[in-house]
Amino acid sequence: MESAYDVIVMGGGTAGVIAAVQAGRAGARVLLVEKTGMLGGTMTVGGINAPAHFFAWGRQVIGGIGWELVRRTLEETGQPVPEPDFTRDNPRPRHLSMDRTVFAALCDETVIDAGSDLLFHAMPAAVASAEDGWTVSLCTKTGLREIPAKVLIDATGDANTVALAGLELVRPDVVQPATLQMHCSGYDPDGLDDEALQQAAEQAIAAGTLQSTDISWRGHDPTGLLRKQGNNANHVWAPQAETSEGRTAAEIEARRAVMRMHRFFRRQPGLEQFRVDWICSEVGIRETVTIRGKTTITHQDYEAGRHYEDAVCYAFYPIDEHLNHGQGINFRILQEGVLPTIPRGAMLPADSRGLIVAGRCVSSDREANSALRVECPCMAMGQAAGAMAALSARTGQDPEDLPMADVYALLRRHEAVVPGDIDLTA
Ligand SMILES: Cc1cc2nc3c(=O)[nH]c(=O)nc-3n(C[C@H](O)[C@H](O)[C@H](O)COP(=O)(O)OP(=O)(O)OC[C@H]3O[C@@H](n4cnc5c(N)ncnc54)[C@H](O)[C@@H]3O)c2cc1C
Q: Which of 109, 200, 305, 317 is 20 to 30 Å apart from 137, CA to CA?
């Protein structure tokens, strides 16, 4: 580790990895700080290795470093690399599926090859503005380390750095539930007696030994989780998961839910050998806080496909708000030809300088956030954040003052898709 950096990226998840690679490839001295022992965040540690969407309306709308990593992962494991054509007339989600172990290892390799330094098992304890940027106090296993940096990127998903800088956050009254990823086996998914299982589940829920959300997103239907072999099938109440206390409560509740579900299924005929092969080491968090940005993306703008003047990337995904208490999902697909964009202003906290946010906590209302939080837009925001941070560190200009033409030129050099480059009418 060096004694000072141009850019410190906090959080090595979906967005943060890409930011660290982009800033490093653009020549900045970069430190990437990650609280766990693995890069990839929700895509690896959270077990959601299903990036959506690089493609829309028959075009590649998100590319660059995120696509490079996903494409290399598919190639390493011998999976076909899809072409954008299959999305020409279909706005419904088509997730790619890839190996998260290979993806995590490629993230390490790509960050290091970009010349960026990597520090696992560390978190920021404090950030203070300094004459030439910031001083970050990092909590490492052996104590606090103070490191100066010109520009900070908050890619924690929870705006933890923004909060430490004393800047304003938006805390919704209610947040989407979390999900603990797992894999279940020991039964024949096609030999299930749906009706008997439904009845047994209703009795267990009435007796208080099971909660409906332990086994499904909607109602008391246990066959969803069984047929999906546990994949993205439960809901866990997870308020204030941006804090260590809230996160602790969510992890404990998620594993309690697994035990309730495990005990319930093993008592059912045909499921006596039911087992949970693995669970992820962290519950997957859909929503915590957002920053109060210089611009806030509303669902009206998102669903109208507004092209912001300072748009840094595209996003393409339906409104996808998971509801608490087994009420299912508020889901709305985008109208034909709609291609939303994400503005730089939504990545810059109000009243801040030298601080960029990338990932799910950018400034947006809850419905817009439920859509733009998915993995491909987070990767694209990460690349834009890395480009802006590198330019800002080099020129001394605040990210807000960088000419968009310079940001676009750097992004294009690194194969990102820049808003405006796609003409859907052509
Ligand atoms: C259950 C579930 C299902 C989903 N399904 C899909 C899907 O099918 N397809 C899709 O595209 N998207 C899906 N999403 C959404 C998507 O996965 C996430 O919104 C996205 O990955 C978030 O990216 P991020 O970079 O903002 O955060 P993350 O990927 O979570 O990264 C944040 C990183 O920061 C680290 N960190 C956090 N706090 C600190 C700190 N204080 N200091 C240092 N490091 C810190 C974390 O350990 C993590 O590595 C799903 C999400 C969930 C939870």
A: 109
Cβ proximity of 152 and 137 under 8 Å: no
Would you report the helix, strand and coil content of the chain in percent, each value rounded to 5?
35, 20, 45
What's the total number of domains in the chain? Answer: 2
Residue 335 lies in a domain: yes
Lining residues, ligand 1, CB within 6 Å: 10-16, 33-36, 41-43, 46, 48, 50-52, 95, 123-124, 155-158, 160, 179, 232, 284-286, 359-360, 373-375, 378
In a domain, 425, yes or no: no
Query: How far, in Å, CA of 33 to CA of 379, rounded?
Result: 17
Amino acid at position 271, single letter: L
Same domain assignment for residues 54 and 199? no
Distance CA 129, CA 29 (A): 19
Partners of 32 in the β-ladder: 9, 118
Convert the pLDDT of each residue in 125-141 to its tens digit.
999 999 999 999 999 99
Closest CA to 229 of 178, 271, 276: 276
Name the token pair of 47: 């077990």
